[in-house]
């Protein structure tokens, strides 16, 4: 089973669907960030699985996965700083309370 | 069903179960712990895919840095662990959308005519990965370091305490 492409693709679709559900359904900003990380992980699983099964002699997918991991680190640092600033500013982490720029 | 299959199923269940905990539970602290579990499962999946280096990076960066940073952010801001009221209709709509997305994406991915390699078990040695990273992928590699530097500076700038702060460093006390 672990030497076929199908199970990996289904696994990454499941991670993607759970992440999208989290981003849509949750109202806590940190919970939305957690769901975003799940989506990035689903992309990584796809990159590495297709790298192994489609062209195992080149490492393009693995290099792409490394870049995704590095960008996820940068993203979470900035996003958590913004969430903390927003919490200090308005004493809340609910996405609905971030409406100061609303027209 | 061989032992490898059982291990694969267990690790896949760990990745998906952790993801389920990460989005399903109300308490955001448990969400962060579920995220760590899911990251461990995905690292195991990478081991199955002959990508040991990515698996190690997954454990070091995702679990060691990102999950811990999220947990710190939850614990350092006082009332963050209070569960937010989630509305029922919105959750049902999101669940239906996510289920549809799962069905469509997995069917498309499974039906797609992938040009599968005849030798899929070939490993990919780490020294080749490093050489590739420093020759063909050198520009994005250097750009990533620039992006990380800017992200560090930006995070410091955004989360800086504004207003008068008490200076209590050792140099100031000695002066």
The oligomeric status of these chains comes to heterodimer
Low-confidence stretches of chain B: none
Element pattern of chain A in H and E: HHH
Q: The biggest beta sheet of chain B, please?
A: none
Largest sheet: number of strands, sense, barrel closure of chain A: none
Largest chain interface and its two residue counts? Answer: A-B, 74 and 85 residues
Q: Say how many strands of chain B there are.
A: 0
- Mean pLDDT reading of chain B: 85
Radius of gyration of chain A: 17 Å
Q: What's the total number of strands of chain A?
A: 0
List the SSEs and their pairings.
The complex is a heterodimer of chains A (103) and B (175).
Chain A: H1 6-25, H2 29-54, H3 60-90
Helix pairs in contact in A: 1-2, 2-3
Chain B: H1 3-24, H2 28-48, H3 52-76, H4 88-111, H5 126-135, H6 138-158, H7 170-174
Task: Provide a compact summary of the structure.
With 103 residues, chain A is mainly α. Chain A has three helices and no strands. Chain B has helices at residues 3-24, 28-48, 52-76, 88-111, 126-135, 138-158, 170-174.
Describe what you observe in this structure:
The complex is a heterodimer of chains A (103) and B (175). Helices cover 75% and strands 0% of the residues of chain A. Chain A is mostly helical and 103 residues long. Chain A is elongated and about 50 Å long. The N and C termini of chain A lie far apart (54 Å). Chain B is 73% helix and 0% strand. Chain B contains 7 helices and no strands. Chain B is globular and about 55 Å long. Classes of the chains: A mainly alpha (103), B mainly alpha (175). At the A-B interface, helix 1, helix 2 and helix 3 of A face helix 1, helix 2, helix 3, helix 4 and helix 5 of B.
List keywords for this structure.
heterodimer, A: 103 residues, mainly alpha, 3 helices, B: mainly alpha, globular
């Amino acid at each position: 089973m672990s030497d076929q492409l199908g199970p990996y693709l289904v696994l990454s679709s499941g991670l993607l669907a759970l992440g999208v559900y989290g981003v849509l359904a949750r109202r806590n900003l940190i919970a939305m960030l957690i769901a975003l990380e799940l989506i990035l992980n689903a992309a990584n699983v796809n990159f590495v699985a297709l790298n192994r099964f489609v062209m195992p002699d080149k490492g393009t997918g693995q290099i792409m996965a490394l870049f995704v991991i590095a960008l996820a680190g940068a993203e979470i640092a900035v996003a958590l700083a913004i969430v903390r600033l927003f919490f200090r500013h308005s004493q809340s982490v609910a996405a609905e309370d971030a409406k100061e720029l609303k027209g | 069903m061989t032992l490898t299959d059982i291990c694969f199923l267990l690790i896949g269940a760990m990745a998906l179960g952790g993801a389920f905990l990460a989005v399903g539970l109300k308490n955001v602290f448990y969400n962060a712990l579920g995220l760590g579990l899911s990251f461990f499962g995905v690292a195991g999946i990478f081991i199955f895919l002959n990508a040991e280096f990515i698996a190690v990076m997954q454990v070091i960066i995702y679990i060691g840095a990102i999950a811990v940073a999220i947990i710190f952010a939850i614990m350092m801001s006082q009332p963050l662990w209070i569960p937010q009221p989630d509305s029922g209709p919105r959750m049902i709509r999101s669940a239906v959308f996510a289920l549809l997305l799962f069905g469509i994406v997995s069917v498309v991915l499974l039906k797609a005519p992938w040009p599968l390699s005849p030798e899929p078990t070939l490993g990919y040695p780490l020294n080749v990965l490093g050489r590739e990273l420093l020759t063909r992928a050198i520009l994005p590699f250097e750009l990533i370091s620039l992006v990380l530097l800017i992200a560090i500076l930006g995070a410091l700038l955004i989360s800086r305490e504004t207003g008068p702060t008490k200076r209590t460093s050792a140099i100031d006390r000695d002066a």
